[in-house]
Amino acid sequence: MTDHIVAPADELEEGGRIITELNGREICVFNIDGEYYAYNNWCAHQAGPICEGNITGTTEASFDPESLEVSLDYCREGEILNCPWHGWEYEVKSGKCLSRQKVQLPSYAVRVEGEDIIVTL
Amino acid sequence: MSQQAQKQESIQDTTIVDTDVHLSVPAKEVAKYTDEPYRSHMANTGYAPLPSSGWDRNLAGKIEHYTVQSPEDVQQRLCEEFQIDHPILNATSKLPRLPQSDLAVNLMSAYNDLLIDQYLDEYDHFYGLASLATQKPDKAAEELDRLGDEDQIVGAYIATTGPNPPLGDPEYDILYQAAQDNDIHIAYHGSGGAFMFEFPRQNQSFEKFIEVHTMAHTWSQMMTLSSLLVHGVPEKFPDLNFTFLEAGIGWIPMMMFRLNKEYSIRRSEAPLLEKSPEEYIREFYFASQPIGEANDPKHMKQLIDIVGVDSLTFASDYPHWDFDHPDALEQYLSTFNEEGRQKIMYKNAADAFALDL
Description:
The complex is a heterodimer of chains A (121) and B (357).
Chain A: E1 3-8, E2 17-22, E3 25-32, E4 35-40, E5 55-64, E6 69-82, E7 89-91, E8 107-113, E9 116-120
Antiparallel strand pairs in A: 1-9, 2-3, 3-4, 4-8, 5-6, 6-7, 8-9
Chain B: H1 3-6, H2 9-13, E1 17-22, H3 27-31, H4 38-44, H5 71-80, E2 86-90, H6 101-120, E3 127-131, H7 137-147, E4 153-159, H8 173-181, E5 185-189, H9 195-198, H10 201-205, H11 209-230, H12 233-236, E6 242-245, H13 251-266, H14 277-281, E7 285-287, H15 297-307, E8 312-313, H16 326-330, H17 338-352
Parallel strand pairs in B: 1-2, 2-3, 3-4, 4-5, 5-6, 6-7, 7-8
Helix pairs in contact in B: 7-8
C-alpha cells in the first residue's frame, strides 16, 4: 500500500472531482459535501469512463397495495453518478450500482493530511 | 491513449471490422447535396425536416450524447480509441419512413454522395453502406447502378422499420437484382425511432422508451427475415449476402427453429425454398450489437455457439447510446480458437461484404 498525493485540498471544491493517473490507473477523487471518495475511472459494464459522467438524481417508485397507486419520486439529487457511455447508475458515496446488486466500483482510501489529498493504493 | 483504449492487449492484436457505425448528419449538411426544391425544403421547414419519435434516448442527461460529424471523429474515437481497423459507415436510417417518396429518392443520392465525399474519400480504410429509399425500388436499383464502381461502397443499408410491403415482396426484386449485379451486399437495420410507424401502439400505449427499444429492432428484423424466406429471396439472388444489424443475436435461434417447424407443415406457402429455413439463416450474417447481458455468461456463450462462428460479426453501433465496445463481444470468445475469433471479429464481415482485406 502506497500513499499518493493527488492535489492540494483547496483545488478540489465541494461538488468537484479530480481525475489523475496513479500506478498506471486512472483514479478519480470526488468531493461530495466535504467528504472525499476515490474510484477507478472504469465502469463495470464496458469499462467506460464512469468518473467523467454527470452526477444527478434518479427516479424511484413505491407501490401502495391499499390504493394500488405507484408513486414516482425524482430524488437523491447530487448522489448518483452516471456512466457517460451507457448510463449505468452508481451511488457516488458508496460505489454501489443501482441496477446490479453485486456490482460495486472498486474504491480507495482517501484522506486529507496537512494541505494535501492523499489516496492509498 | 485513454485507459479504456489500453485495457485489453488481445484486441490490439486482432483486426476488427465494425459493421455498424452511424454518422450524425445535420439536415443542413445533407441539404448541400440535394437538388431543388428539396434543398429549400430541408432549409426552410420550421420543424425538424425529418421525422422523429421524440423519445429521450439520453435519459435526461444521464448518458452523454455522442455524435459522429467528421471523418476525424471516426478515426480518433473508433479507429484509435476502440482499435477498429475498418469501420463500415452508414449515413441515415430515415429514408424508408418518409411519406414523400420524391424527397426520399433525392435524399438517397444526397446521403450517399455525402458519405463518399466527406468520409470515404478521406480514409482508405473506411467502408460505407449506400442508404436506400425503398419507396421506389426502381430508383433504388438505379442508385446501386450509379454507385457500382465505388470501391468503398460495399453494401446497401436498408432500414427494416418502415418499408411497406415487407422486404421479401417481389416488388423489391429489381433492387436485389441491381445489388447482386453490382456486388453490393445487403445490410438490414431496424430502428426505434421509426417503430411508431410500424407499430402504432408504441406511441399510443408505451410510456417508456425502454419498452419501445427492447422490441423495435428485433421485431422489424423478424418481419424482414420471415418475408425474405417465404418469398424465396435467397433462392432468387443466390450471390447476394444478407447481414442483420443492431438486433443482437437472441432472436435468431427462435426464428431458425420456429420457421423450421412452420415450414415443415406449411411448405406449400413458401414453395421457392429448397432447404430448411435454418439452413438459409445459417448463410446470413448477424451483427453482435446490442450484445445480450445474461446474468450467467455461460448462456451468452451458448447463444453464440448456436448462432455459429461462421455467422457472427462485430458491430459497435457507435455513437448511439447503446453502443458496444469490442470487449463486450471479446469476453465471450475465449472458448473459440484463434480462427474462430478471427472469423467473428473480421473475417465473416469481410465475406459478408466482399472486403478486400
